Amino acid sequence: MKITDVAITQVAIPYKEPIRLSFVDEQYFSSVIVQVYTDEGIVGLGETSVATHTDEVTAMLKNIKRLLIGEDVFDVEKHLKLYLGSGGGAIWWLEHAVSAVAAVEIACWDIIGKYLKTPVYKLLGGKYREKIPITAFLGIKKPEEVSKDALKAVEQGIKTLKLKVGRNPEEDIEILKKVRDAVGNDVEIRVDPNQAWTPAFAIRQIRKMERYDPQYIEQPVPRWDLEGLKQVKKAVGVPICACESVLTIYKAMEIIRKEAADIISTDPTRMGGILQMKKLAAIAEAADIPVVTHVSWGTISTSAWLQLCVSCPNIMLANDLLVANGVGRVNADEVTKELFYHEKGYVTPFEKAGLGVTIDEEKLKKYSNLFQELVAKKKKPEFFACPPMF
After folding, report:
1. Tens digits of residue pLDDT in 41-79
2. Which domain holds residue 126?
3. Contact predicate 227/201, CB 8 Å
């Protein structure tokens, strides 16, 4: 089955409410929706984030489109080697290339599943587990507001909370304290400063947090500082998770070799696709390091993440999967006809062929137009100069 065309559509979709992280305030998420066409009439869907590097990813996708035409959809490994390996030239822009390649790779799996009339997870080894626990992804607010959101999530049955911090050291501690007091000791709490701290400050801050029993601290130091990450890991009593540091399986391998993290959080768009993410999960499993999927963007990526998660023994903890009835970071709408909903903190993959999602053409057009309007107005996420704290 040959690829005949690739359609690339940039979209922007509002969140139900703005989300605040250590370095950015966001009202919208932006992604690229990829539709891969074949000579069998089957169309595959993929999605990748373009939050901070739109031009590079879309340029890569246009180049990949040129190279994909006429290729066999089933040759997924060949596509990966061509675009991520030394033969394709993308190695020189690897961190941008992985996002672009992932979108078309996910679409190829969708096509293969549709052709074989089976969900993608059955192509990845079948189900290891039936359902996947999710987190409540809670942005930075006043401690009292975060604790109310946390309690709402727990009342829905969500048992793992992800707290964003990193703007105010004292308030960070108070957020964690208020949330722990509100939800009790039977709920897991992750803390994510998104690279806001130096190693020395991270050690001091995490030691103050230890009394509130966080499940782990995610990416406390800048992503390039693997030695600093290792230093923090060795100095504190809380597990350390690498997230922004984990771009490509090669960087993941470096983190594992350095023993710089207890947990790895990443996703197929950061790896170069579902197959690369599956490889990472196996590598990490051999090193006895759990893997958590980084936050999904829309329904297409959420479906891809779920198909992967149910097939991987090493993806055993709660994952940052966005659902329509979640708490915190929730999309106001989607470009697909299908939506995901959690039930008491768990979500299951669609059982339909491929990823099990279909495009709503009117909404695709609507949110593509919104993306173009935001670009024309030069309206981007509001980034903050957030130097590491000492």
Report:
1. 999 999 988 654 556 677 777 778 888 899 999 999 887
2. 121-347
3. no
